[in-house]
Amino acid sequence: MNKNMKRLFYLMTGMISVCHYMEAENISISTPNTTLVLSAEKGEDLKYLYYGEALSSEDIKSVEYAGMYNHSAYPVYGMVGKGETALAVKHGDGNMSLEMCITGVRKEKNDGKETIVIEMKDRVYPFYVNVNYAAYDDVDVIESWTEIRHEEKKPVVLNQFSSAYLPIRRGEVWLSHLYGTWANEGRVAQEPLNPGMKIIMNKDGVRNSHTAHAEVMFSLDGKPQENNGRVIGAALCYSGNYKLRVDTDDTDYHHFFAGINEENSAYTLNKGERFETPRLAFSYSNDGLSGCSRNFHRWGRNYKLANGKVERKILLNSWEGVYFDINENGMDQMMCDISSMGGELFVMDDGWFGDKYPRLSDNSSLGDWVVDRNKLPNGIESLVNDAKKHNIKFGIWIEPEMANINSELYEKNPDWIIKAAGREPVLGRGGTQVVLDLANPKVQDYIYKIVDDMMCQNPDIDYIKWDANMSIMNHGSGYITKDNQSHLFIEFHRGFEKVCQRIRDKYPTLTIQACASGGGRANYGLLPYFDEFWVSDNTDALQRVYMQWGTSYFFPAIAMASHISATPNHQTFRTIPLKYRIDVAMSGRLGMEIQPKDMTEEEKSLCRNAISQYKDIRSLVQFGDIYRLISPYDKLGVASMMYITPEKEKAVFYWWKTEHFCDQHLPRVKMEGLNPSKRYIVKELNRIDNEPLSFEGRSFSGAYLMANGLDIPYEHKVDYHKKNDYASRILYLEEVK
Ligand code: GLA
């Protein structure tokens, strides 16, 4: 078809659509500031019409005439030619085609959200798909997912099963997404969407935010800006393998699909069985990337994260302080130290367990969750009592989905691990680690029991660091039938969720951290069961500025564990001043990851002061609205961001240098999000300078601060022997009443 003929063809189909849509019933799905409009006429396919800023009821009616819309809202394979699809199946009789039409539309209302269910059936086969949209009435997020089932005589194979699809009008659309691996998680990548297919995916099996993240943002008005421009964000809520596709074909739209990664995961669906896809959460904002982040954060805290409305404790984690060298006196000393600095919780990391096979390094004992009596003769109970003595809470590390081949668990249950039939298992960390087969209900019960026994024996345990340090490296389950081995990844995560749900049902207020070789499990599919995640095993404050920046695109500070660690840093060997390490950690969920007995009194006192000041701003950081100001990725020599209370009466401003040269010229950072007509008094937190800053205690209008910002000195005015690089500042702003 030549260009003109093609245009004519589109015009004709457009005209046909107009006539057709005149009869159509338009459904609008609304949040406070956004609207999604669909055409849902009985007997026809579900069509997408609009997603963006909230529309009036008149515009909702007329929107279908504003463009030549002809997008199925859930495209299926087999009858529509070459376009990308969300769902592709092989029917019991071998037929590979689908053609869905609407049989009904239902509305349900619960928990502050309205769900619209569009029921569809294949025109020929008893094959059914419900497309669901849930809209919140207090936050601009819409979740979409599907339920698939059939009544065919023979099983149907699902070859592709996306959660949702969204067409995005071409223009100058840029994609922002996160990438990274161990010790370098949450890095931001931004690129214009060009013709071709962009795929973001994970096939680790266990840790699904290493290598890539299941969240993206589309900036619709050119190069992404933090505080301006229209942005659509999307987060796939799933703990397992995923695939996000953006197809930029020869039409006027980018085609965005997201769902479980179907590679090596074809699913055989039996008659009457219901297959539910994970939810894809959409958000739209007119206020740039930061605006979209604020929506995800609010939704995350209010509806997704476990205990998202409860302030987090300030903790010391033992890992970088002692690694595997656990003993009673050492733990007591660390508890005493963190308590004396004002901390509220101590977490004993790896190395405390194993009887026949004591855990001395990373190559044994996973699975044997009994205390190592050589290291801890009086057991966990005495540590919990020690914590009480120091007036703090106690937490513990486990890695319950895993085993080592040198463990009593593996000796007793060699068939409980994931491995290919007839082959030796592929071994992971320490050369001996294996992944347990969570598809197996016995394994699920065993994992539940690990946590339940531990909590029954020590009800005062307040926190669990739940780790997962291996991928699914070989494909095979001894529990799943031979014919259904391709269900492995899906069944593993169903099993995982079941266990997590049982634990949450019994222990709703227990704090549980998702750790997976650092930041391998930052995803909204996991967060309903976890209170927070470990952002990265890399605690280098400078690199954390980059990683936490990216992670904050989708996840609120309350979920981002951010710890003050030793210098030189154990991962990068960089030497960074303590003040800077503190100032970075204080922008997330503050903790420490250090051996306090190696700290000087002066360092301890700096931390004591910081912990006390963090307590004052904790609710602002953990529940506030984020405004990112200058990105470290822009390489301007400084990164800066702030949190503001929704009422805009308090704010905290962070400023971190990202490089240091003599005669350096850094931009003066304009603030955002304040109330222009309020006046704010400025106070520096964690001051180390001999003299206060010129603006200390002075007040400025929000309008001035947003138009000009404050000129922050590039270096600290300290005694000569205390001078160093990497200056940083935290300013607290409070409305003058
Ligand atoms: C993983 C975690 C670390 C630490 C170690 C313990 O690597 O990410 O924080 O808990 O395991 O072995």
Tags for this entry?
single chain, 737 residues, alpha+beta, Immunoglobulin-like, ten-stranded antiparallel beta sheet, 36 strands, 31% strand, globular, disordered N terminus
Write the layout of secondary structure elements.
Layout (H helix, E strand, L loop, with lengths): L2 H21 L2 E5 L3 E6 L7 E7 L3 H6 L8 E2 L14 E4 L9 E11 L2 E10 L4 E10 L4 E10 L5 E14 L4 E8 L2 E9 L3 E7 L8 E9 L11 E7 L4 E7 L4 E8 L6 E3 L5 E2 L2 E7 L2 H17 L10 E3 L1 H4 L5 H13 L4 E4 L30 H11 L3 E6 L3 E3 L3 H5 L20 E3 L5 H17 L3 E6 L21 H19 L4 E4 L17 E3 L6 H11 L8 E6 L12 H8 L3 E5 L7 H23 L1 E6 L7 E7 L5 E8 L21 E7 L13 E3 H6 L20 E8 L2
Parallel strand pairs: 21-22, 21-30, 22-23, 23-26, 26-27, 27-28, 28-29, 29-30
Antiparallel strand pairs: 1-2, 2-3, 3-4, 5-10, 6-7, 7-8, 8-9, 9-19, 9-20, 10-17, 10-18, 11-12, 11-14, 13-16, 14-15, 15-20, 16-17, 24-25, 31-32, 32-33, 33-36, 34-35, 34-36
Helix pairs in contact: 8-9, 10-11
Characterization of this structure:
- With 737 residues, the chain is of the alpha+beta class.
- The chain folds into 3 domains: 3-179 and 197-304, alpha-galactosidase from lactobacil brevis (Beta-galactosidase, Chain A, domain 5, Distorted Sandwich); 315-512, Aldolase class I (TIM Barrel); 627-735, Golgi alpha-mannosidase II (Immunoglobulin-like).
- Strands 6, 7, 8, 9, 11, 12, 14, 15, 19 and 20 form a 10-stranded antiparallel β-sheet that branches. An 8-stranded parallel beta barrel has the order 21-22-23-26-27-28-29-30, surrounded by 5 helices. Strands 5, 10, 13, 16, 17 and 18 form a 6-stranded antiparallel β-sheet that branches.
- The radius of gyration is 27 Å and the shape is globular.
- Alpha-D-galactopyranose is lined by residues 319, 349-350, 362, 397, 467, 469, 515, 517-518, 534, 537.
